[in-house]
Amino acid sequence: MTSPRRGNPARSGSTALLGAAGLAGLLLVMELAPRLGLVDERYLPPASRIAAALAEEAGTPAFWTALTDTLIAWSAGLAIAVGAAVLAGIVIGSIPVLRSLTASTIEFLRPIPSVALIPLAVLMYGTDLGSTLLLVCYAAFWQVLVQVLYGVADVDPVAFETARSFRFSAWGRIRHVLWPTALPYVFTGVRLAASVALVLAITAELVIGSPGLGKEIAVAQASEAVPTMYALIVVTGVLGVIINLLARTGERRLLAWHQSVRGEVTA
Questions:
Q1: To 10 degrees, the CA torsion angle through 45, 51, 55, 58?
Q2: pTM, 2 dp
Q3: Residue 158: is its pLDDT beyond 70?
Q4: Which CATH number fits domain 45-259: 1.10.3720.10, 1.25.40.10, 2.40.50.180, 3.40.1350.10?
Q5: Membrane-spanning residues where (predicted)?
Q6: Residue 2: its pLDDT value, please?
């Protein structure tokens, strides 16, 4: 029996080099465009000035405090949303009558933009952490819930009835039949929710003024510290890339047994 072949290392290396070249090209354009007068430096400072502002910000305690506040709001909101969505998805998906009763409600609530809840969040929690958590939880919850419902619906009914005939308890059927099937869907939902949660955390801080990187961006913009504003925006972008990479890495490691992940490493 032959083992699955790994992806071509040369192709992976070439992709990484192309990505690095694209980033270098972007930085070069950002450096030259304002210096050549193609854009006004008041609106887009050279990349070197943005880098200098980033280095200056990284040396201040206020920057790290804001970064910590954003990460706390993101992680707490995501954890609450994932826990609630997984529990609700398993319960709703396992009971056909309940799934039918809630289908229209879910389809009505899910498309509502989280930013539309900003007035409600401010009314309830002011500019405290709670307002950010409300928006993050609402946005991330639907990403995970929908995926869990798909996962529960994908369970093989024959396997489920077989487990029932072997007198598996309800918990046993969930643990040994439903959960392994739904888990890849859960990870997909968590990966999507992680990115959405970061977007909403920054948005809440930016609009509401709750503590975090978003608030610091708004302060920099109001004080016309444009290089600092761009530096903080870069930090949020890097944070998003790191979160996405960690989510994908965790998904591949924890689902290494699943065919969808094993297929990624076969030629």
A1: 80
A2: 0.83
A3: yes
A4: 1.10.3720.10
A5: 12-30, 71-96, 108-127, 133-153, 182-208, 228-247
A6: 41
